[in-house]
Amino acid sequence: MSQTGTPADAPRTAVSTAPQSPAATPGGPAAAPVPTTDGRAAAHSSSGPLSDGGLVQLLTPDGERVAHPEYDRYVAHLSDEDLRQMLRDMVLVRRFDTEATALQRQGELALFAQSLGQEAAQVGSGRALRPQDHVFPSYREHGVAHVRGLELTDLLRLFRGVDHGGWDPTSHGFHLYTLVIGSHTLHATGYAMGVQRDGAVGTGDPERDTAVIAYFGDGATAQGDVSESLVFAGVNQAPLVLFCQNNQWAISEPTTRQARVPLAARAPGFGIPAVRVDGNDVLASYAVTAQALERARTGGGPTFVEAFTYRMGAHTTSDDPTRYRAAEQEALWRRRDPIDRLRTYLVARGALPDEFVASLTAEADALGEHVRTQVRAMGRPSAASMFEHVYATPHATVEAERAWFESYESSFLDRAEGSPR
């Protein structure tokens, strides 16, 4: 029997851990790595970069709702219908991911970056955003794009090579995908500083106060751009959420090759509070992000969120993860699947009626057909189109390169016509 309208903060069990507000997040001296006998940091120690201790969690992997004294209030208003819509978002995004991967294998896309397994971190955090907030994604944030209302096939224009991956960032508050690792965190920091200087922070007007969120992976934290972003965001108290999806792999390099402590431990050194969350828990991802966004909008400054999750697919479709990780590890994380977790919780509440499941299945099938049809209809752009929309206004260097390319192309036509060259 459906319980639509029942708050989602009615826990089935209670956790014994203490509240974890961002300011009190582990990551200082207490989070130093445990050395091994040969002097290396223990990869799976209780305080290392792969530690799952101290993660904010509201739904266990078995779908049990657990209480959290700090974050329950951020999900108290969510009804069963809200949770069903979160489930819908994750199911549709995974179907999109599956179809795009298949299209790449069929030669319809040049490349694709999967988000398989990271749906909860993206959908949960994305649903905490307000319309005026602005998102700076990397290239794997398909779930956030969906929640922000983008036509998902527009994302595939980039991976098909039809255009530069352009859409209007202001229409949905969602910036362009960024392929240069970590560089967009600087763009996000600058944008957040601009919002701050425009007076759109701390006004008390919920329709005006604005936050900015930047999504990046664990590998990006090893880039200087992210470090510089932390400097500027911290010093300027920018209204920014730095959302790190720690999926444990920077292509084939594990997080243990990038850090000796949890990645969130870096932020306090820049004066930025940090929090670690179970990234496969859509409720916890929502709650933690809602708190961080609230802090940003009210003038409290930036927050670093580390969503601890797992990349179930390949880094991109040009990658073969079987060469560097074990099947046993994948099986472990498959049992922590974010979609199964929320589905189990809804079933236990009697809040997942058969008609909803049937409707969602049909909607996912329709999305799959839509993706296949739209991608195959994109056609092939002219080579000269690469010079279009590079800049908003005419640019001398681009125009010179266009003229050279046209001359180069025409030289082949001249030869075909028998020109003595």
UniProtKB/TrEMBL annotation:
Its cofactor is thiamine diphosphate. This is Pyruvate dehydrogenase E1 component subunit alpha. The keyword Phosphoprotein does not apply. Residues 1-57 are annotated as: Disordered. Residues 89-369 form the Dehydrogenase E1 component domain. GO terms for molecular function: magnesium ion binding; oxidoreductase activity, acting on the aldehyde or oxo group of donors, disulfide as acceptor. Keywords: Oxidoreductase, Pyruvate, Thiamine pyrophosphate. The lineage of its organism: Bacteria, Bacillati, Actinomycetota, Actinomycetes, Micrococcales. One of its GO terms (biological process) is branched-chain amino acid catabolic process. InterPro entries: Alpha-ketoacid_DH_E1_comp, DH_E1, PdhA/BkdA, THDP-binding. It comes from Cellulomonas composti. The keyword Oxidoreductase applies. Residues 13-37 have a biased composition (Low complexity).
